[in-house]
Amino acid sequence: MTWLRALKETARTGLTIERTRLEPLVALRGACGVAIVIGLILWLGSPPLAVASAFGAFASGIATFQRSWRPRPVLALAAAGGLAVSTFLGYVAAAHPLAFVILLGAWSLLAGMAWAVGPVSGLVATQMVAVMLVTVTLPASVLGAVHHAALIAFGGLVQAALIVLVPIRPWGAQRDALADAFAAEADFARRLREDPVAPFDPQPLMDARHAASMTPRQARRRPRQLRGYRALAERIRPVLASLADPVVGAPATGPERERVRDLLQAAGTVLDAVAHAIRWGKPVRLPAEAMAVLEVPASGPMLHGAARRSALRLMALLAEVVESADEPLETVAPAHPTPPPAASSGESTAAARPADQEADRPGEPTGGQPVAQVAPARHALLRPTVPRLVPLALRALRRELRWGSAVLRHAMRLAAVACAGYLLGSLLPLGHGYWAPMASVMVMRPDFEQTYARGVARFTGTLVGVALGGAVMALARPDEWVSAGLAVVCVGLMYLLMRTGFTVASACISAYVVFLLGIAGEGWSQTVQDRVGLTLLGGLLAMAAYALFPAWETPKLRDRLADWLQANGRYAVAVFTGHAHPLERRPRHVRDALLDARAARLAWEQSEARAQAEPVRHRGISRRSAGAAQTALSTMGRVTMLLEAHPPDRSAPASPAAEEFAAALRAALPDAADAVRARQPLDWTAVHAALDAWRTREGTDALPVRCAELLVDALDELAGALSRGPGGKNRARRRV
Is Transmembrane one of the keywords (predicted)? Predict the structure, then answer.
C-alpha cells in the first residue's frame, strides 16, 4: 500500500463512528468516576492536585473499555495499581534527571514487552509510561510520591466502585460475543441459500470461545444463557455447510434444493432469535412462519442421503439451542395465520422434529418422534486468576526474547523514543515538554499499520481538539469549576467514541487536556501552541523509529501461509483418520486440530492485513498469489469441515484406503510447508497416488472419497497459486 493510500484509509477509519458500538450509559458512568475524583480533590485540595489525580480515574476508565473478558472492576483496580507504582517511581526519580532517564528507558522497555501478554496488558503498560512522564512536572519527594500515588490509586478505586454499585448490562461482553457467534451463523445460513459454497469467517466463534473462558468465581456466577450455547454453535456451522453443499448435500437444482433453501432460511430465523435472546437475556421467541417450515411435510419434496441426515441433525441442534436457554419458549403468531402442514400425531415442538423422512442411521430420530434433548455442557473453560497469571506472563515474555520478535523490537523502539522525546522536549523552549514522548508512547504499537494510523489520527485530532478547547477558553474564560465540568464532558465523549473513530476520540482527549490544565490556571494560548508542536514532534519520532528499526509483516507471509497449511493438514488428517478407524475415533483430537487451524488462519489474516498497509514491496509472494493461496486453504478447511459433519458409525468397518490417504497427507505436509517457505514447488504426488488407490477400492460415490477429491483439488490450487510460472498464474485465478 502506498503512503497516500494508507493516509486516505487512516482518515476514513479515524472519522468513522459505528453507532452499534456506542454505549452511552457505560460512558456516562466512566465520566462520573472522573468527575467524582476531580470534584473531591478540587474541593478538599488544590487545582494542581485535582489535575494530577484525574489521570488515575481517566486511565482506569480507559482500561475498563478494552476488549477483555475479565471483570471490569478487576481491570480498573489492576490499572490503578500499575499507575500508582509508576507514579511513585517517577516522583522519586524526577529530581535526578539521569536517574529518571534510565528509569524511563527501563520502564518503557517493560511496557513494550507487556504486549507479549496481550493487548490489554500492553495498553495499560503504555498508560503507566505516560503517567510517569507527567510526574516530572510536579514536586519530587518520597512523601509527595506516596501522596500522589495514593491519589492515582483512588481514581481506580472510584471507577471500580461505580462498576460494582451501578452495574450496566452485567456479563454484557460475554453475551455480545456469544450472540455475535449465533448472528454470524444466521447470516451464514442465509448466504448459503444463494451461494452453496459461501465462506464463513470463524472469528465470531473464536471470540465466543475466548469469552467463555472465565475464572472459577465467574463460572459459578454466570447466567444460565451462557452455559452450553457455544458448543452447540460450533456443531451447527458444519451441518449448515454440509446441507447446502451441492456435492455432499442436496443437488444444485430441483425440488430438493428449494427445500434446502427453505430450511436454511428458517434456520437463520431461529438463530437470529436465539442471538437476540442471549444478547438481552430474554426468552427465545420463534416466529410461527419459521416453525411451520421446520415441520415434517405431508407432501412435497423430500431430502435423501447425506442431505437428509444433515437436515435431521440441524433440526436436533436447533432444538437443543432453543431448549438450552432454560427460559420459556414464546411463539410469535404470524400476521396472517395459515394452517400448518399436517404432521404425525406424536410430534411436539417444531424445532425438535426431523425435517424430512426418518433417518437411516442408528441413533438418529425417526419421523413422528421428538428429537431427544441432549443436556448442554455445564463446564466452563477456566481462565487463570490474576496471581496465577504471573508465571504465564513470564513464560510469554521469555518466548518473545528473540531478535526476530515484533514485540521485542517494539519494546526497544518504545524505550529509545521515550528517552529521546523526553530529552528533546526538555531542551526545546516550550512548556510541557513531556507531551512529545507521551504522544510517541500513546501511538506506538508493535505493527506499522496501527502506529501509522494512530499517529496521523492523533495529530489531526490534537489540532481539532486544542483549537476547539482553546476557542472556548478564550471566549468564555471559565473558572476552575466550569473548566472541570467541560473536562468531564470531553472525557465522557471520549469514552463514548473511543471504540469507533480514533481521530474523533483524540480530539476529545486534546480538548479534555486543555480544560484540565485550565483548572490549574494554564494559559490556553500556550497550551495550544505547546500541545500541537510537541504532538507533531512525538509522532515524527514514532514514525522515524519504525523506519529505522522496522518489523515488517510482509516478509513473514510465507511463514504464516506454511503454518496455516500444516494446521489445516493436521485437521484433515484427524478427520480422515476417524473415517479410517471409526471405532477408535477421537473427537477431542479433531477439535484440538480445528482450533489450531483457526488460530493459524487468524495469524495469516492478521499478517496479510498488516502487510497490505505497509509501504514496502512484496517479498516472495504477490498480493494476487496470496489471495489465491488463501482461497485454496479456505477451501481445504471447508472440505474437511464437511466431512467432519458426517462422522461414520463406530460400528462401521475400518477403511485401509482412508488410512493410507491420511498417512500420505501426513507425510507430505512437512515437505510442503518447507517448500512454501523456501519458494519451491509443492509436490502432492504421493497424495494423488493414495487418492487413486482409494477410488479403485471404494469407487467415487462414497462421501469420504468425494471430500478427498475436493481436498486434493484445493492442494493443487495452492500449488498453482504459489507457482511462479505462467501455468501457476493461470491456476491461481481459479476458484474452487
Answer: yes
CA distance 548 to 359: 65
Please count the CA atoms within 13 angstroms of the CA of 6 that sit on its side-chain side. Answer: 20
| Angstrom distance (rounded) from CA 618 to CA 490 | 43
Q: How far is CA 152 from CA 99, 336, 347, 604, in A?
A: 23, 62, 64, 40
pLDDT at residue 109, as a whole number:
94
Q: How confident is the model at residue 526 (pLDDT cuts 50, 70, 90)?
A: low
- Across 388-411, average pLDDT: 88
Asked whether the beta carbons of 350 and 267 are under 8 A apart, the reply is no
pLDDT classification of 523: cutoffs 50, 70, 90: low
String of DSSP letters for 472-493 = HHHHH---HHHHHHHHHHHHHH
By percentage, how much of the chain surpasses pLDDT 90?
Answer: 28
User: Alpha-carbon distance 97 to 421, whole Å?
Assistant: 14
Amino acid letter, 386 = V
CATH class, domain 554-732, is: mainly alpha
pLDDT for residue 725 is more than 70: no
User: If you search the block for the grid coordinates 438450552, which residue do you land on?
Assistant: 324
Q: Over the stretch 440-458, which tens digit does the pLDDT of each residue have?
A: 888 888 888 788 777 777 7
User: Where do the domains of the chain lie?
Assistant: 24-167+407-548, 172-215+223-333+345-363, 554-732
CB of 341 within 8 A of CB of 298? yes
State the average pLDDT for the chain: 81
Scanning 94-171, the segments in alpha helix (DSSP H) are: 97-113, 119-134, 142-165
pLDDT in the model for residue 334: 45
What residues contact 487, with CB distance under 8 A and at least 6 apart?
34, 38, 54, 512, 515, 516, 518, 519
The runs of H, that is alpha helices, within 167-304 are 172-194, 203-212, 216-221, 229-244, 255-280, 288-293
Cβ atoms of 110 and 421 closer than 8 Å? no
